[in-house]
Amino acid sequence: xxxxxxxxxxxxxxxxxxxxxxxxxxxxxxxxxxxxxxxxxxxxxxxxxxxxxxxxxxxxxxxxxxxxxxxxxxxxxxxxxxxxxxxxxxxxxxxxxxxxxxxxxxxxxxxxxxxxxxxxxxxxxxxxxxxxxxxxxxxxxxxxxxxxxxxxxxxxxxxxxxxxxxxxxxxxxxxxxxxxxxxxxxxxxxxxxxx
Length: 195
Prior knowledge:
The protein is an alpha/beta fold. The chain has one domain (3-194): Rossmann fold, CATH 3.40.50. Helix content is 47%, strand content 10%. It has eight helices and five strands, in the order E-H-H-E-H-E-H-H-E-H-E-H-H. It has a five-stranded parallel β-sheet with strand order 2-1-3-4-5, sandwiched between helices. Helix 2 (22-32) packs across helix 8 (178-194) and helix 3 (50-60) runs parallel beside helix 5 (84-101).
């Protein structure tokens, strides 16, 4: 199966080895479970907002040839104080694009919630503000996903364990470690395998 992961620093795995990026961990886990997947195509860069991702997808001229598509985006919209209304429009457009890339099969698309970086050393001083805003963005992500009958998988609660265990964050004190990503993948894979 062909898999494409669309996103930002979380999908490209800022600060972790390529093998520890969660889309790669997921492909390995699905392959081991009897759903063989090629090495994922990852369209993601640290710092991307929804509009940056949309531009990159357009430039890449991707074909509707994927058996699995994931979408995880929005933290930089929040971090850069971008409008939630604009995010809602752009996220919905990205979700429609994701469905198109999955050959129109909504069941082959899944959305991952935005992690909460308020629970990292980097975000700790603004934890309450960050967490409340991430919750607002995630409500949009979930409601738009449900509107289009696309599976929404929340990993935000897992990201909030990072202050209890420093090994869940990379050396930059902000991005998830491979250990954190493996916890996400345990949950994500379970959802996909049950499909």
